[in-house]
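Internal ticket #5521
Category: modeling
Description: The requester needs a full-assembly model to guide mutagenesis choices. All entity lines are attached below as received. Residue total reported by intake: 510.
Assigned to: D.W.
Attached entities:
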Amino acid sequence: MFDSDAIKDAIRSHILTEVLPGESASNLPDDMPLRTSGVLDSMATLKLVSFVEDTFGITVEAHEAGVENFDRIDDMASFIQGKREDR
Amino acid sequence: MSDARSAAASRRVGGFLLLAAQLALLLGVFHVFELEGRTFRFVAAAAFGAFALHYWLPFRWKEPFLVLVSMAAAPLLLQPATGYALLLAGTGLFLICALPAPYRVRVALASAYFTVAIAARGLGFLGVPEQFWPVFGGIFGLRALGYLYDLQRVKGRPDPVAFGAYFFQLPNYCFLFYPVVDYETMRKTWYRRDIHAIAQEGVQWITRGVVQLLLYRLLYHELLPPSTPDAIASPAKLVQVIVVTYLLYLRLSGQFHIIVGMLHLFGYDLPETHRRYLLASSLTDFWRRINIYWKDFMVKLVYFPVVFRLRRSGDLRAQIVATVAVFSVTWLLHGYVKYWWSPSWPFNVPDALFWGVLGLLVIVNVVLESRSPRARSSPGLGARLLHGAKVAATFAFISFLWYLWQRPTLGDWLELITWWQIG
């Protein structure tokens, strides 16, 4: 139902709406660091985690919400796909 | 990923020469201004020299080389007995982390290791030099907590080279107040983009750190009145001492920029440690901008675990409880860090008040932010004036609270801030 591009688009859309209102999608490439550059703070990450859980039907644990999985849109998409395959 | 990293380490004579020239210039500046003492200048020369060799090495040898240099430098830059004791302490910690035992057993053993160290610091039964303990605390005291947390996800035996690179960092031998570098971030960002871009950013941050250290020197020697009742004889003097005391933090932020800038030279594309904290527009904004590594450390080890455990009972409630936990742990860990410096009772009333008031006001901000979603910033004059007023108010409040934090007792603070009225 969700391929990699669809996951990335959904995440990008969420970040643009909730964190960077008014920003252009072209300024948010898949490989842009978001946590390690300060774009996503802890509150924004929490909102993103809730969005990911609700949208993609997965559960994210506290230790999975670090920069390993939630720094770039690329990382997030790989993580979500992995979790969905493990279900 | 390894191929991508190896490609990011591609060498170019022109790129190297440009970086080397800038580093040589920086060494000259350190020397002319006699910046941060002799040990720092030795560390800087060692780091820049190591960079010149590290740059040309084959990719697979780069990190082992850096670890070798950093470990060999310990007995040379510190007292030899301190340096060897640190290497022994690091080996002991690594052996515990690498034991073929369940994660919980290794954490229990590491806890016992630090309990013995804390007791030895207080009772002095290990017979190590006095200089050893602040350095031990500066290297292992906090980063070990982050490493142990990340260890739960390491499959197989932990990598000794990654362990060495994480704990034995050259700048740590002269800067004992050290940013809590995140192990996971350090591994993830290593050579994640072209080395010339990473190293150039490092040079910029070192330069920024130098500017901040020079500003600190100016403030300390030229603009800071003595904190004695006689010297604070007017409201203007009181404002001056309060503001300058806060601005002295430029020394720590300057040191942190230099430290992370040096790590950039070796391919660690770490994020900024401070982001224009003097321009924070609210207390939450201040918390997010000042000592970002500490904030991230607390988010990872305290905030997220608490929030994820409680969030089913309501997001806001979970966030409030987690924020209380973060500021409580921050207060305790600041005492723990102080203990490695001096084994006396590390807590006092101004300390508790500072973290208590800051935590309380950040919670108020969290509640307010949860009720008003982020809006696109308006470029209008009114919005700019409002933002400027918020920045000024935040700066004034933080300066006031910071001055409290820097006083040894509450009575001392009260006496100084009211002396001009009664004196």
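Resolution: model delivered.
Comment from assignee: Chain B touches chain A at residues 149, 152-153, 182, 184-185, 188-189, 270-272, 275, 288, 292, 295, 299-300, 303-305, 307-309, 311, 315, 319, 366, 369-370, 373-377 (CB under 8 Å).
Ticket closed.
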